[in-house]
Design goal:
This protein has about 200 residues and is an alpha/beta fold. It has one domain (about 1-15, about 25-190): Vaccinia Virus protein VP39 (Rossmann fold). About 25% of the residues lie in helices and about 25% in strands. It has helices at about 25-40, 60-65, 80-90, 105, 130-140; strands spanning about 1-5, 15, 50, 70-75, 95-100, 115-120, 145-155, 165-170, 175-180, 180-190. Strands 3, 4, 5, 6, 7, 8, 9 and 10 form an 8-stranded mixed sheet that branches. A two-stranded antiparallel sheet has the order 1-2. The protein is globular. Keywords: Methyltransferase, Transferase.
Length: about 200
Amino acid sequence: MTRIIAGRAGGRRLQTPQGDRTRPTSDRVREALFSALEAWAGSLHDLRFLDLYAGSGAIGLEAWSRGAAAVTLVEADRRTADLIRANASSIDCDIAEVVARSVAAVLAEPARAPYDLVFADPPYPLSDEAVTTDLALLAEHAWLADGALVVVERSRRSPEPAWPAGLEPLAGKRRLKKYGETNLWLAEASATDSLAP
């Protein structure tokens, strides 16, 4: 069981998948993530949020609770995707779009509209090369608005993602946030390389 931290659904509880199908992001890391997002954006209001490898949906639903205007959650496991839909319904979130397909398959198709914020929490066993491939698809298929922020959660033992063309890591201490065994890597979509319409 986890909960929405802040916003219109603050304090509401969410179900998490049973067993080892997902690795939920801890409340502490989610709080730190959204502090970083709000420091970068000022506010999530009216922004479009894409949650990749969504698990329980806690990150995307937190974004909605904090004012995101559109939220898309991509989760390959169909039972887990059904759980996200149930979680969205339980907190009265009627705008969450849940896509039960692999991240690679979804991102290989052109986006209907670009996103301002992207959070990717790939399974830790997923290879660094596969993560880089998925990130490259974001820019190649117009998923990123100019200047969009992309955050990748990885194990502390994993290297920094090999950012593909179109994504530039943030400068200095804003580039990496460390929380126990979790690293959050942050990059921006460059306006010249983004293929957003």
